[in-house]
């Protein structure tokens, strides 16, 4: 047993190291694309309207005068320990983790992200829970009732879900449940601390919209995996041992069918963030997506770069967590060095 | 779906494709999908001719077709003999023309981005699978990372830093195409790995063929069936991404018609003029459904194992 604990620590350390390398490479590539490719990043950071004085200030302030490697080093250091922009009385301290400073909004990118994060996280986490529940349940039911009307029904809904764009489904849902039936609010976000019930009702439509699209893929996947798993020898063995059918289905069938589902879920986290961005626009919520779109339209480069890098970090980290779960779920996955 | 393809079933060359066509004709769902796609492609190509029938174009304002609040006047968003799908709120532009020309944008961007993705994916996948070693390890790692990447966020960000003088549709194709290649590369790599050990490759190498000859003359034809399936599956997601970007306001710029942007504009009108959402949205849904249906059919025809599993 001791060695298995040591192996687990080795597995985690190995994955952690891999994650750090990936993060560093992503940071470098993102930095090159966003700060070195544009002919004049100071002009972009200056915002609209950009007066010559402002431009000069931005140049000195953001450190665009120094060579690129110094800039990149300052940026990386800023993410870990923070950094100070400018000097003297005008100096602005950006405590770590510092993803940049928006000259236009006069705030650190980290603060901006933190202030919007609850909105996007509420959408994304809730949607993921709903879609996993319905996707996996739908897939299992379809697999167990294979070839029946229930199976065809679930799969019919699934193919429609796969092909329907989320914004179309979302808008139709607003039209039906919001305007026509008047059951649910048509948009906006209420903080959980302010009113948990309102928070919930405002999020039902975004959750179900995203879950309908992604859950469809999971229903198809789970169904296929479940059918395959249920035809394996160990299922026959489990039945032969006289286990109850529910135990056979859940402990032996589903557990094995879920392994690829977890893999795909890890890969879909990036898409989940993208889905949340779209959902924010559909349901007029001011989350991270709205922050990014505003920054893009006002050419607020530090916010664009800072948020892009933050989202990449977030996803890579989330994948690291999924990898660990995967290691727990699948006894066959152990240290792979 | 990838596992079954990666298992390395390789259909023969000409006979394989002929068989696929025969099988597709018996697959009602795939056959209908193919017809729907053909109709959309024809509509896109002949959009100027079709709009001649009603004498409309997607750019002219018809303020007279609107009421005082800017909403289309009359039944169903202003449906009439001249405006078959009604008109756009605020501008009164002909929605039928917008949807028709929007098909050009969607299919044009979707297919171009797919070609780019497939070209890069095939090149990377073939070489990684064939040469192996550290090159393959690095490529596989890059593919892994790119798979889980928040690509939509990157795409939105990239549209901010490129000079305004750079043609937008080209930018969109490049950006979308860039994030699509890993899917193709992974499958092609898997197939190449299993093909590499086959006798015909060994024979070819033994006869003195160079690496590139083996890659292009021996391996490429054998993975072409897979490539076609994946291209078909990739097109609807590319169309979807273009529409999503346009929906978010960072896609093709106005006044170029785009289904995604029309749907985005429809947010404000969903209560007063729902048909403004339904026509472009329905078009987008139909074309995606059709490509998915054809892709499924092609996959079943090429890979008998997956069909057994799905039916």
Could you explain how this protein is built, in words?
The complex is a heterodimer of chains A (about 325) and B (about 300). By secondary structure, chain A is mostly helical. Helix content of chain A is about 75%, strand content about 5%. Chain A has twelve helices and four strands. Chain A has a two-stranded antiparallel ribbon. A two-stranded antiparallel ribbon of chain A has the order 3-4. In chain A, a hairpin with a 6-residue loop joins β1 (about 80-85) and β2 (about 90-95). In chain A, α5 runs antiparallel to α6 (about 150-165), α5 (about 110-145) crosses α8 and α8 packs across α10. The mean pLDDT of chain A is about 80. Chain B is an all-alpha fold and about 300 residues long. Chain B has 14 helices and no strands. Classes of the chains: A mainly alpha (about 325), B mainly alpha (about 300). Chains A and B meet through α1, α6, α7, α8 and α10 of A and α6, α7, α11, α12 and α13 of B.
Briefly summarize what is shown.
The complex is a heterodimer of chains A (337) and B (311). Chain A is mainly alpha-helical and 337 residues long. Chain A contains 12 helices and 4 strands, in the order H-H-H-H-E-E-E-E-H-H-H-H-H-H-H-H.
Strand arrangement, major sheet of chain A: 1-2
Total number of beta strands of chain A: 4
Tally the helices of chain A: what do you get? 12
| Helicity range of chain A | over 70%
Taking pLDDT < 50 over at least 5 consecutive residues as the criterion, the unreliable ranges of chain B are 1-15, 307-311
Which band does the percent of strand residues of chain A land in?
A: under 5%
First-last Cα distance of chain B: 14 Å
**DSSP summary, beta strand count of chain B:** 0
Q: Helix/strand-derived class of chain A?
A: mainly alpha
Beta-strand fraction estimate of chain B: under 5%
H-E string of chain A: HHHHEEEEHHHHHHHH
Oligomer: heterodimer
CATH class descriptor of the largest domain in chain A: Mainly Alpha
Alpha-beta classification of chain B:
mainly alpha
The outline of chain B comes out as elongated
Unreliable spans of chain A are none
Sheet with most strands of chain B: none
Estimate the mean pLDDT confidence of chain B: 80
